[in-house]
Amino acid sequence: MSDTLLEVDDLRVTFPTRTGLVQAVRGVSFSLGRERLGIVGESGSGKSQTGRAIMGVTPPQAEVSAKKLAFDGMDLLSMSPRERRALRGSRIAMILQDPKYSLDPVMTIGRQIVETLRTHEKVSKAEARERALAMLQAVQIRDPARVFDLYPHEVSGGMGQRAMIAMMLVTGPELMIADEPTSALDVTVQLDVLKILDKLVAERGMGLIFISHDLRLVSSFCDRVVVMYAGKIVEQIKASELRDAQHPYTRGLLNCMPRIGFERHPLPVLDRKPEWAA
Amino acid sequence: MTASITVEGLEVVFDRFRALKGVSLEVSEGESYGLVGESGSGKSTLLRAITGLAPVSAGTVTVNGKTLGKTRDKAFYREVQMVFQDPYGSLHPRQTVDRLLQEPLAIHGIADGEKRIERALDEVGLGKGFRFRYAHQLSGGQRQRVAIARALILEPSILLLDEPTSALDASVQAEVLNLLEEVRRRRKLTFLMVSHDLAIITHMCERLMVMQNGEAVETLTASQLIGHRVSEDYTRNLLRASEGFVRA
Predict the structure, then answer these.
(1) Angle between helices B170-187 and A248-255 in degrees, nearest 10
(2) Is B81 helix (H, G, I), strand (E, B) or coil?
(3) Element (H, E) at A115
(4) What is the CATH number of the domain that holds B25?
(5) Which of B165, B169, B228 to mutate to test the interface with A (most CBs of A within 10 A)?
(6) How many residue pairs bridge chain A and chain B with CB atoms within 8 Å of each other?
(7) What predicted TM-score, i.e. pTM, was given to this entire model?
(8) What CATH number labels A6-91+174-277?
(9) C-alpha–C-alpha distance, residues A67 and A8, integer Å
(10) Residue A144 backbone phi and psi in degrees, to 5
(11) CB spacing of A157 vs B39 below 8 angstroms
(12) Measured between alpha carbons, how far is A221 from A212 in angstroms, rounded to an integer?
């Protein structure tokens, strides 16, 4: 951690509902250098909303507030929408869960990558195409020229996810937010996609925020893990020290999954304590 | 041991795509049998073919000694019930839990509905307070409990489980898996369970079949799998993948 890329201090995301205000994220603070940070939690823990608030794609009815939300020294919250837009996709990028829903179904994969690139950089069409093809190659798509002209429905989930990674990386972002990037994929394909992501993040020295519900996966992939429960961070821990996690919620999450070769009947379940959410 | 489900040379064809290419398996009474494979391997299609939800073009299915024809009669559904993957999609959004549970009873003309509904809800760990709620008022785990209650209310002997926990959080998954094990023990049920997760299958099942591209790759016992005594490369790959990400 030489330079701080992202600083988050007391981030709150509030949604108006019929029964009053609901805080999905309640005072989250962390900082990120050029490292891999995992954010883990169950559905409703606020992990995705944290990622979205940093990216600036929180739904319009929700309100984001923070004592500090700074990327590379720039205050994200006081920025104009225009400045924010320029940042999004060029210096901060986001990979979403399911390529089936997050790629444009009526545009070829190549055109989508070229569009991203030409939105943020002044490049000729020919050069954009070259760079898109090179990027597809970098995510280990065997025949980039063919995939370039395919529509999202014509490729498999793993291929679609690689295309999305290619699209997000083509502008050379410094911070990547990956929200459950492999949850929609088969286990065997998951590892391929993670390997590609790992390699590219390491090569380019990016900061990565990896959001997932799978604590074990995150701990094998990231340097540091933030565990969230009910909109708050309950524990921050180095991935290598996860075994010595202190918080009962973290330990419960680690324990409750069946593992090959560990016979436990019944499986231990989480005994949720109200004070965890306090 | 008598066979509960016997499948022989089962073929399922959608248009020109062969989703199942002659699959055979035998599940004994009271056994828990797992099907593993990646998406498109035909594991769910096999379950759906048994219940009559997929077009069978060749092969036979025998349940409790009776070979099934083209259509399934009511008696079949009293023996075999299914729990689907997505509890957000498998419960009617405009029916209360009570109404949902009454449906199978009405279809089969069962009289003691009141008692059965109470018992079924109790059995899956939902109190009476849940009886008149709608699906959208329940969490994912509670919905899956309702789906299990609906399957159990006819007192079947066989449960077909199609990825029953893959839409749930890990901690909720543990609760649902425990519940399934408990009802199986109490009611001496036969399970045929589909999952893409080897760990869940070895936890829940005694024997399993690994599938790929609509065919059986190999059949193993859970202890063979745990001991890594597998003969096919494909299974080995699955095993490696289930151990998580390892930096090269």
Answers:
(1) 50
(2) strand
(3) helix A109-120
(4) 3.40.50.300
(5) B169
(6) 93
(7) 0.86
(8) 3.40.50.300
(9) 8
(10) -55, -40
(11) yes
(12) 11
DSSP string, B197-232: -HHHHHHH-SEEEEEETTEEEEEEEHHHHHTT----
Residue at B44 is within a domain: no
Range of the domain at B30: 3-37+51-242
Q: For residue A264, what are its two tokens?
A: 């436990």
Q: What distance lies between CA A258 and its chain's CA centroid?
A: 25
A153 touches chain B (CB under 8 A): no
Residue A89's nearest CA partner among A173, A180, A179, A177 is A173
Q: Residue B43 domain-assigned? A: no
pLDDT tens-digit readout, B29-79: 999 999 998 888 899 999 999 999 999 999 999 999 999 988 899 999 999
Task: Please state the domain extents for chain A.
Answer: 6-91+174-277, 97-170
> Are the C-beta atoms of residues B139 and B185 closer than 8 Å to each other?
no
Q: Does A98 touch chain B (CB under 8 A)?
A: no
Q: Are A224 and A238 in contact (CB under 8 A)?
A: yes
Interface confidence, given as ipTM, is 0.79
Continuous H helices in chain B: 43-51, 74-79, 97-107, 113-123, 140-152, 170-187, 198-204, 222-226, 233-242
Mean pLDDT within A262-273: 84
Count of domains in chain B? 1
Contacts of A110 (CB under 8 A, 6+ apart): A129, A132, A133, A136, A147, A148, A149
Euclidean distance between CA atoms B34 and B178, whole angstroms: 16
Neighbouring C-alpha atoms within 13 Å toward the C-beta of A119: 18
Does the residue B112 lie in any domain?
A: yes
From the CA of A257, how many Å to the nearest CA of chain B?
Answer: 6
Distance (Å, rounded) from C-alpha A158 to C-alpha A173? 22
Look at B197 and A265 and tell me if their CB atoms are within 8 Å.
Answer: no
